[in-house]
């Protein structure tokens, strides 16, 4: 997992933070409730040359801008099916190119005699690139973030199906994410929210041509259609939103700040989206290596040569370290995430009037 | 317009309706990012640049492979100025992801660093580095110009002592059907289409002089021309450019003073 270095907190400070977050109810350094998000500034359509764009600034000064551009591309014809099986699995093997449950999607018609909309998109029509200042593109952090965001956007299959024009052409969507400030705290929720807003504001030119002829679009930008339609009739799926959730003992905290991340027992990134019946669906979940594992442990007196301990061999030091419970001020957390805690996290995000709904409702307010 | 010279000669209006000496709409904000030492956001027409400055700070680890070594003065006596320019993939009409070692970008980075080496008091911070990061969000002509202006504002916000602002502008030579030199106006502040078609140059000046500010004698810090123009037109272009720089400097100064007023009001009230 992406390493997270540079936590300038002493063992005493870490212990203090952990103890206050482990209280019932948890005491956070800034006094927020456990589901209270920090204020943010968001604006859309900031880039005139992009199909969709958004910019979000978090309260701690981190800022990200996302530009979405679309290009028409010729569809590479899929190789012929072997034994009637769908060959095109998509980049991430998330299912048969989107047709997880529907086998003969090309042949299926719904009540109106129109072709079914599912399963025509391909994963490679979406390209996400993340630019973090000061890091190369193949550093751990940008690659990990890019993989997470791509997975979250492709998991529900809805986005790539919208990019279909006809059997010979499709839209290729480029989502370029630019982190404008240094990555002070784990930037995943910031980038995910900004991408969500940018996709909501993305417009594609209106198609004039019919069926399989070369695509021709309306020159009038006012006639362009949103990628994610707004009217109530359609109740389209919204793009997914990824939230960062931490757990300290049995407490669950949302929107962790940098200090809270440094002492978390477990860190989970959850991607949710709004499905057609307005309920929330969890589409991706990833555990993130908690930065607390990289913190420096306190030194027990038995090993502290300035407190009068003898110098010991390596095996003895290791043995003392293994059993130093209670002998040190702070020890990096060991062990994984309890299933009950994980279940509680998911429930808090997905339930009616839960955190996920609140976040999505808040973002809707940004749209004009 | 440039290919069809008669349009300009008829009404003396450019494609976007400006006259020869009109600047595009310049909008700038200073101190836009709380987490950096200095920051600014500048829009000149549709060219949008976001600049952050960090420093002066201790030398970071050596630059990763692919970044050109900035030809700075020895770091024992002066601060080193490092410029990083990042052209976003969505900045132009076509989506294009640029490689880090793009020669054009490297040359612009070098030009910007050299320009500020002449105005910043780097001798006050030996053994340190001032990093200027420019994010190009949208480009529509006059890229180097906007970068210099944005960097000036961000450096002012960072509080790095300098002798004066560096303000820049582009100037082109309007096409004319006959080759006479008298009736041709140099065009100020080009947009993307004009830049592609006309020979142009970027001029960056300070107004350093007797201390009277704008009234002092301008010093040219940056002069970049990559296209060919008739020698006879050069002087007119240059004088229009220097005057344009003076006007841009006035606009940048207004932005700084507005921010200063805001800061003072917050402190006093």
UniProtKB/TrEMBL annotation, chain A:
<dbReference type="GO" id="GO:0000467">
    <property type="term" value="P:exonucleolytic trimming to generate mature 3'-end of 5.8S rRNA from tricistronic rRNA transcript (SSU-rRNA, 5.8S rRNA, LSU-rRNA)"/>
</dbReference>
<dbReference type="GO" id="GO:0071028">
    <property type="term" value="P:nuclear mRNA surveillance"/>
</dbReference>
<keyword id="KW-0271">Exosome</keyword>
<dbReference type="GO" id="GO:0071035">
    <property type="term" value="P:nuclear polyadenylation-dependent rRNA catabolic process"/>
</dbReference>
<dbReference type="GO" id="GO:0005730">
    <property type="term" value="C:nucleolus"/>
</dbReference>
<dbReference type="GO" id="GO:0034473">
    <property type="term" value="P:U1 snRNA 3'-end processing"/>
</dbReference>
<dbReference type="GO" id="GO:0035925">
    <property type="term" value="F:mRNA 3'-UTR AU-rich region binding"/>
</dbReference>
<dbReference type="GO" id="GO:0000176">
    <property type="term" value="C:nuclear exosome (RNase complex)"/>
</dbReference>
<dbReference type="InterPro" id="IPR027408">
    <property type="entry name" value="PNPase/RNase_PH_dom_sf"/>
</dbReference>
<dbReference type="GO" id="GO:0000177">
    <property type="term" value="C:cytoplasmic exosome (RNase complex)"/>
</dbReference>
<dbReference type="GO" id="GO:0016075">
    <property type="term" value="P:rRNA catabolic process"/>
</dbReference>
<dbReference type="GO" id="GO:0034475">
    <property type="term" value="P:U4 snRNA 3'-end processing"/>
</dbReference>
<dbReference type="GO" id="GO:0071038">
    <property type="term" value="P:TRAMP-dependent tRNA surveillance pathway"/>
</dbReference>
<keyword id="KW-0963">Cytoplasm</keyword>
<comment type="similarity">
    <text>Belongs to the RNase PH family.</text>
</comment>
<protein>
    <recommendedName>
        <fullName>Ribosomal RNA-processing protein 42</fullName>
    </recommendedName>
</protein>
<dbReference type="InterPro" id="IPR050590">
    <property type="entry name" value="Exosome_comp_Rrp42_subfam"/>
</dbReference>
<dbReference type="GO" id="GO:0034476">
    <property type="term" value="P:U5 snRNA 3'-end processing"/>
</dbReference>
<dbReference type="InterPro" id="IPR020568">
    <property type="entry name" value="Ribosomal_Su5_D2-typ_SF"/>
</dbReference>
UniProtKB/TrEMBL annotation, chain B:
<dbReference type="InterPro" id="IPR001247">
    <property type="entry name" value="ExoRNase_PH_dom1"/>
</dbReference>
<dbReference type="GO" id="GO:0034475">
    <property type="term" value="P:U4 snRNA 3'-end processing"/>
</dbReference>
<dbReference type="InterPro" id="IPR027408">
    <property type="entry name" value="PNPase/RNase_PH_dom_sf"/>
</dbReference>
<dbReference type="InterPro" id="IPR020568">
    <property type="entry name" value="Ribosomal_Su5_D2-typ_SF"/>
</dbReference>
<protein>
    <recommendedName>
        <fullName>Ribosomal RNA-processing protein 41</fullName>
    </recommendedName>
</protein>
<dbReference type="InterPro" id="IPR036345">
    <property type="entry name" value="ExoRNase_PH_dom2_sf"/>
</dbReference>
<feature type="domain" description="Exoribonuclease phosphorolytic">
    <location>
        <begin position="22"/>
        <end position="161"/>
    </location>
</feature>
<comment type="subunit">
    <text>Component of the RNA exosome complex. Specifically part of the catalytically inactive RNA exosome core complex (Exo-9) which may associate with the catalytic subunits RRP6 and DIS3 in cytoplasmic- and nuclear-specific RNA exosome complex forms. Exo-9 is formed by a hexameric base ring of RNase PH domain-containing subunits and a cap ring consisting of CSL4, RRP4 and RRP40.</text>
</comment>
<feature type="compositionally biased region" description="Low complexity">
    <location>
        <begin position="62"/>
        <end position="74"/>
    </location>
</feature>
<dbReference type="GO" id="GO:0005730">
    <property type="term" value="C:nucleolus"/>
</dbReference>
<dbReference type="GO" id="GO:0071028">
    <property type="term" value="P:nuclear mRNA surveillance"/>
</dbReference>
<feature type="region of interest" description="Disordered">
    <location>
        <begin position="55"/>
        <end position="77"/>
    </location>
</feature>
<dbReference type="InterPro" id="IPR050080">
    <property type="entry name" value="RNase_PH"/>
</dbReference>
<keyword id="KW-0271">Exosome</keyword>
<dbReference type="GO" id="GO:0071051">
    <property type="term" value="P:poly(A)-dependent snoRNA 3'-end processing"/>
</dbReference>
<keyword id="KW-0963">Cytoplasm</keyword>
<dbReference type="GO" id="GO:0000177">
    <property type="term" value="C:cytoplasmic exosome (RNase complex)"/>
</dbReference>
<dbReference type="GO" id="GO:0000176">
    <property type="term" value="C:nuclear exosome (RNase complex)"/>
</dbReference>
<dbReference type="GO" id="GO:0003723">
    <property type="term" value="F:RNA binding"/>
</dbReference>
<dbReference type="GO" id="GO:0016075">
    <property type="term" value="P:rRNA catabolic process"/>
</dbReference>
<comment type="similarity">
    <text>Belongs to the RNase PH family.</text>
</comment>
<dbReference type="Pfam" id="PF01138">
    <property type="entry name" value="RNase_PH"/>
</dbReference>
